Amino acid sequence: VTAEKAGFDHFMLKEIYEQPKAYRDTMMGRISEDGRRVALKEIGMTLEEIRGIRKVQIVACGTAFHAGLVGKTVIEDLARIPVETDVASEYRYRSPIITPDTLVIVVSQSGETADTLAALREAKRNGARVMAITNVVGSSVAREADDVIITQAGPEIAVASTKAYTSQLIAFYLLGLYLAEKLETRDEKWIANVLTSMNQLPEQVESILDQANVLKQVAESISKHSNLFFIGRGVDFAVAQEGSLKLKEISYIHSEAYAAGELKHGTLALIEDGIPVIALITQEQLYEKTLSNIKEVKARGAHVLAVINAGHEGEVSKSVDEMFAIPRTLPLLAPALSVVPLQLIAYYASLALGHDVDKPRNLAKSVTVE
Ligand code: AGP
């Protein structure tokens, strides 16, 4: 068994460390040789069909849904097509408005999640074109979708999804750039610049993994608490939701993810002395806004760990208790880096509490029944 885990204590840790490779493999063959264009040969849509897309609906469960939240921002920002996101168990029963000019994107690591598959079938019944982002070739979702983007994360064994999630982010970045080029919403130079930054992500993840010890200490102090908050704005909020889910499912510590600007509409009442708050502050354009939310919780006694961009230590240090810096990248790409410390915090918190990291209670890797 240790051999299968390649020397790691758990599959989850092994899979966290496989992310640089998963990023490279998911990008491989999908970027033109000159590094300036995305080539998604697996997409069978004609230019006319792409131009005809009026709306995108992203449907998934759990962590795959959280990847979809980032995907929404990516597609709206790059391709300027309106995007709705739904958890599959809601979508399938809420009589969603699906038209033939809707592109439905289902996201599923396993490709076998019952609700996601049902959502896919509902979308097809209503005449939508369905694209799947999945990690398993030949899975039900892959077989039934019209277009399939395979994430090359390799088998994911731990119940807590890590490398599948980040590979889904890479798939969304590639898709967003592909649509932007086809729809001419971004020019070639701009696209090439994003691709250059994407190519740096694997090494940047490696540099985060090299600091795992710092995160282990953070996790050990968090593990003494029974409640905490994750806050952020924009894609930082999407990552906050994923960080919170990861921590809940394997450490059993209750946490909530909140849009930082929404705190004062209720949740601030829960902030009391010593409560840990993990704040993501990676989005330049929202920087001042999030910083003022951090100050709000800090003034009420919260113990704040901020996930920041390298280079901002000076400005942020006065307002927080601890900082973890991620390497500089484009704001839209930050989730592919900022989620990694949160995965490690969840892992080490679970470990500190003596839980079964790879097989948390009450959960299955793939939810194939409703
Ligand atoms: C992730 O850590 C969870 N175990 C879970 O939310 C999972 O992402 C969800 O069940 C969806 O699975 P899928 O990607 O295989 O469809």
Give a summary of the structure in a few sentences.
This is Glutamine--fructose-6-phosphate aminotransferase [isomerizing]. By secondary structure, the protein is of the alpha/beta class.
Q: What are the secondary-structure elements, in order, as H or E?
A: HHHEHEHEHEHEHHHEHEEHEHEH
Ligands, ions, cofactors? 2-deoxy-2-amino glucitol-6-phosphate
Major β-sheet strand ordering: 2-1-3-4-5
- Global shape: globular
Number of helices: 14
What is the rounded distance between the termini? 31 Å
Largest sheet descriptor? 5 strands, parallel
Mean pLDDT across all amino acids: 96
Helix/strand-derived class?
Answer: alpha/beta
In terms of per-residue confidence, which ranges show pLDDT below 50 for 5 or more consecutive residues? none
Count of distinct strands:
10
- Helix fraction, binned, reads 40-55%
Estimated radius of gyration: 20 Å
Q: What percent of residues are in strands?
A: 15-25%
Which key phrases capture this entry?
about 375 residues, alpha/beta, five-stranded parallel sheet, about 45% helix, globular, binds 2-deoxy-2-amino glucitol-6-phosphate, glutamine-fructose-6-phosphate transaminase (isomerizing) activity, aminotransferase, glutamine amidotransferase, cytoplasm
